[in-house]
Amino acid sequence: MCFAFxxxxxxxxxxxxxxxxxxxxxVSNDLMRNPDMCDLEGGPCMLVVKSGNASGVTIGxxxxxxxxxxxxxxxxxSIHQTSMEWGIMNYDGEExxxxxxxxxxxxxxxxxxxxxxxxxxGAGNAKALDMAYATPWWWLFERIKxxxxxxxxxxxx
Length: 157
Hints:
It is built from two helices and six strands. By secondary structure, it is mainly beta. It has one domain: Trypsin-like serine proteases (Thrombin, subunit H). A six-stranded antiparallel barrel has the order 1-2-3-6-5-4. β1 and β2 form a beta hairpin. It is globular and about 50 Å long. It comes from Dentipellis fragilis. This is Peptidase S1 domain-containing protein.
């Protein structure tokens, strides 16, 4: 199965025969905003994949707009949490959804296997979320290291 994707070399994404996409590396802030791949019309596009508990394996299109999200305590407006969210739409914009309730916590990677983010939520109809949100991995990993895990890494070998 091939998806609408190409890069300067004409490379297309072939669904792995064993359904396992090896993960290696991460999607940087700059790469999220300026994808190194494009759709068949030549427009910048980042195709991403996730394997969620509720919806299984799905393909989506990530946008390059990152949103800052602030959550304030209703009891004390000086207490707040700040997060960043990366918007992801379903692949074709018509039928399938990228995520469903119960998929939160799934890793979102681009179709080259680079880790992009951690799925955190969605918007739209409860059974058909038309927009999913992931916390960018580069942003999250900086905070993990700064919160007492400076030696954290993704090299499992």
